[in-house]
Amino acid sequence: MKNRNLLLMLLVVGCAVAFIAATSMAAGMPDVVKVYSPYKLKKGVVQFTHKKHVEEHKVACGECHHDDQGKPRNDLKEGDTVKKCFDCHNKPGELKGKKAKGKSKKEKLAYHANALHKNCIGCHKAYNKKNKTKAAPQKCSACHPKKKKK
Ligand code: HEC
Ligand code: HEC
Ligand code: HEC
Ligand code: HEC
Question: What is the reported pTM?
Fold first, then answer.
């Protein structure tokens, strides 16, 4: 008798866990997304408030996600899967300063951090200018929190 109750309880708990897992997967919209970067970061990991950008800042999926032609993916729905930026913008790090001199827009965009910076900071700059504010972060430290000293 005792054993059967225990089994039943385990079954109920199991179902609840499966249900929660399924619903949160369907929601598919993680709060904070760690932008995939396969290389050793010099800067701290960027905190990117994915959900807030969609829900509070009202940014459309296609402002950031696009297809292999660079065409905005405004057909995206919550729960869809997307490619990592690094799948296409697949040179590690940032090309800037002397090294970037004479390089075409396309060559620069191949670098992961150039593409991300263009997307993130590009919009923030335009937004701040338009709304006469500094609310959208442009400073390095706002997106790259200082690494803890060892
Ligand atoms: C402001 C830019 C931005 C907007 C708007 C945006 N995303 Fe994203 N999203 C990103 C970035 C950056 C990543 C991380 C990609 C990477 O790791 O290379 C990401 C990751 C994802 C992931 C993968 C999550 C994970 O944990 O790996 C999914 C799924 C996704 N986005 C779906 C969406 C959908 C659906 C919308 C619209 C409702 C949307 N995104 C709107 C920038 C954005
Ligand atoms: C499936 C491949 C693919 C993925 C995944 C991808 N990109 Fe792109 N991206 C492209 C192509 C192709 C272009 C157009 C390149 C050109 O104009 O020469 C582009 C262009 C861009 C541009 C330039 C847009 C402009 O206004 O000139 C930015 C910025 C950018 N991508 C950022 C991102 C970010 C951020 C992510 C991840 C959220 C991402 N890309 C994911 C292929 C991709
Ligand atoms: C198309 C526009 C757009 C793009 C692209 C975009 N942002 Fe934002 N971001 C905003 C706006 C709007 C705010 C809110 C400003 C305010 O509070 O008034 C914001 C705010 C933020 C904040 C402050 C915390 C918060 O969520 O309010 C961080 C951090 C941030 N963005 C990081 C990023 C990163 C990292 C990327 C690139 C992966 C990115 N953003 C791309 C529009 C954008
Ligand atoms: C709006 C947010 C944002 C701002 C502002 C910003 N970055 Fe980034 N940065 C990113 C994102 C997103 C990536 C790509 C994801 C990653 O590599 O963690 C990145 C990547 C990098 C990288 C390559 C990865 C590494 O750690 O080696 C460097 C270097 C970098 N940023 C330097 C800077 C510097 C310097 C500034 C100020 C001039 C700056 N960033 C401002 C969002 C930002």
Answer: 0.89
